[in-house]
Design goal:
Blueprint: E1 6-9, H1 15-24, E2 26-29, H2 38-46, E3 50-53, H3 61-64, E4 72-75, H4 85-90, E5 94-96, H5 103-118, H6 121-129, E6 152-156, H7 160-169, E7 175-179, H8 186-192, E8 194-196, H9 199-205, E9 208-211, H10 225-230, E10 236-239, H11 248-257, E11 262-265, H12 276-279, E12 284-286, H13 295-312, H14 329-338
Helix pairs in contact: 1-13, 5-7
The structure holds 2-keto-D-gluconic acid.
């Protein structure tokens, strides 16, 4: 009997997904969540045929140096700024991500942050839990927040998640503006009831600005002090995309000085560290990168990553056709090689 291909899973994963992988592979799954050093990644990846990795695992030239075995890296996320795709492609290593299955859950969460930031859910809960309510003589005009309905929603980055956020805005009777590299097809624009504007106009007009951009070097600090200065003092900023798209220090300064009303943040520069100035503020709602973390969605993401590995390594019903490859040119090269 030939030995099963070897697969490394860099983060603890649902046992049923690991069991699916174990039908085909010799699985080495991490039981404890932790960050791996480049050396650890290099060593692990040198000994396996495929790996399921998380966003904290940076897969680049350093960790792939001298690797002649690895065929496939499945990212447990839709964003893949942790993968150096050019280098993977050059090494003939297939990469995949987890699009679509998380779109609606992440769009839901963007709304959770918008509503929570606008209506001061976090700060008022902290006050209640601290026991301040009894005896406070809470006034009629305490805890006043911002209305969401009827306002202008700005979406920066109008991919699938941005469109999901826009579609939900109809229920809140909002005016939806977006800015994107390219204009949506007319049918989608109509479905989303969204109007394309320039970035400057988006910054000036949005009452709620939600960031859904992929993280690329060009998008580093796409929202910094100059952009924040263009926004309304009454505006709310929501970042569910990636840390580093916002200059967190500049954002904290704007929130502290009252040049921006509030923010909701799921992602941070240098996470899991959070800028101390943000932690000190009450007008920002903070969550630990959980926008996709519903039971169903995280399972679907894990299963999709597993589907990609199973199919890429030639097993299962979709053998040879992984569902969501990022560099399909590698697949073409593999088949040319076989022929
Ligand atoms: C993470 C995400 O994958 O999909 C993405 O790009 O940022 C999230 O869904 C998730 O937080 C697991 O780390």
């Amino acid at each position: 009997m030939t030995a099963k291909p070897k697969v490394w899973v860099s983060r603890p994963l649902f046992p049923d997904v690991l069991a699916r992988l174990a039908e085909y592979f010799d699985v080495d799954a991490e039981a404890v969540e932790r960050r791996h050093t480049a050396d650890e990644l290099k060593n692990k990846l040198a000994g396996v045929d495929a790996a399921l990795v998380g966003l904290a695992d940076r897969i680049d030239a350093t960790v792939l140096e001298g690797n002649t075995r690895l065929k496939m890296v499945a990212n447990l996320g839709v964003g893949f700024n942790n993968l150096d795709l050019d280098t993977l492609t050059r090494h003939g290593i297939l990469a995949s991500n987890t699009p679509d299955v998380l779109t609606e859950s992440v769009a839901d969460f963007a709304w959770a942050l918008m509503l929570a930031a606008a209506r001061r859910v976090g700060a008022s809960e902290r006050w209640l839990r601290a026991g301040h309510w009894p005896g406070s003589n809470q006034r009629f005009d305490d805890w006043l927040g911002l209305d969401v309905h009827g306002r202008t929603l700005g979406i920066l980055g109008m991919g699938r998640i941005g469109q999901g956020i826009a579609r939900r805005a109809a229920g809140f009777d909002m005016n939806v503006l977006y800015h994107n590299r390219s204009r949506l097809p007319e049918m989608l624009e109509r479905e989303c009831k969204a109007t394309l504007v320039g970035k400057d106009e988006l910054l000036r007009r949005a009452d709620f600005l939600v960031l859904v951009l992929p993280f690329t070097p060009e998008n580093h600090h796409a929202i910094g002090a100059p952009e924040l200065a263009r926004m309304k003092r009454s505006a709310v900023l929501v970042n569910i995309a990636r840390g580093g798209i916002v200059d967190d220090a500049a954002l904290a300064a704007a929130l502290r000085e009252g040049t921006l009303a509030a923010a909701g943040l799921d992602v941070f520069e240098g996470e899991p560290q959070v800028h101390p100035d943000l932690l000190a503020l009450d007008n920002v709602v903070l969550s630990p990168h959980i926008a996709s973390a519903s039971e169903e969605t995280r399972r679907a993401m894990a299963n999709l990553a597993a589907d990609n590995v199973i199919a890429a390594l030639g097993f299962g019903e979709a053998a040879g056709n992984p569902p969501t490859p990022l560099n399909p040119a590698v697949l073409a090269r593999w088949s040319a090689h076989k022929a």
